Amino acid sequence: MIQPIVLTDHEAVSQRAADWLVERLHARPSSLLCLATGATPMRAYALLAERAASDPRLTSQCRVLNLDEWGGLGAHDPASCARHLRAALVEPLGLTDRFIAFDGLAADPAAECARIAAWLQQHGPIDACVLGLGINGHLGFNEPAAALQPHAHVAALSESSLAHAMIQGAARRPTAGLTLGMADLTHAREVLLMVTGPTKQGPLARLLGGQISTDFPASLLQLHPAATLLCDATANGRPAT
Ligand code: GLP
């Protein structure tokens, strides 16, 4: 059962998440990092970029894999996941040659997912995986369903994903999600789940309820032997201790 580490606010969670990433990079400099986007982890990435700017060895060997992408949005689209990671980490730290991401504009999205799956099979497993919690319990674009997909795949997007703030200003409505699968995430050596803000209170309570169900994909992290859950007091519904 994952025990949440409850911190005061989003900034404290971001600081602790940056510490977690720095520790993993010190322990294994060639780490394969799998990184979510969305609002929750971006401040932690900015803090990591600051640390790495003053200690370039920290990220001189690591590789960064983008967890998911909006189908129909290209790498230069301001709403794309790749664009967010490039701006926060990849470009400031010169990681372009070690950045692996889905091409949301691929003519054949299934073939694009097969490309990423083959890459991960050859270069995986993920060493350190940073995840956010979807309102409906999704991880990446692994949406609630009777059965979940193990590896990279094209996912139909739920209404809650289509309502995500990241794409509200996008010129095009995404057609699907391209995402790593649940086995890719649960086989990561270590996982960090970040949960902050009032909209995550219900989902966090459900996660901590302990029932494991494909109807709430994040619940599968309860089975992970090295998963850390960082949340703020607001998401947790009571003051930090
Ligand atoms: C999005 C993304 C996820 C992200 C999650 C939470 O739909 N597909 O990768 O982690 O939802 O986003 P946020 O951190 O903005 O709440």
Summarize the structure.
The chain contains eight helices and ten strands. With 241 residues, it is of the alpha/beta class. Strands 1-10-9-6-2-3-5 form a seven-stranded parallel beta sheet. Strands 4-8-7 form a three-stranded antiparallel beta sheet.
Structure overview:
This protein is α/β, with parallel strands linked by helices and 241 residues long. Helices cover 32% and strands 17% of the residues. It is built from eight helices and ten strands. A seven-stranded parallel β-sheet has the order 1-10-9-6-2-3-5. A three-stranded antiparallel β-sheet has the order 4-8-7. Helix 2 links the parallel strand 2 (32-35) and strand 3. The site of 2-amino-2-deoxy-6-O-phosphono-alpha-D-glucopyranose has 13 residues, from loops.
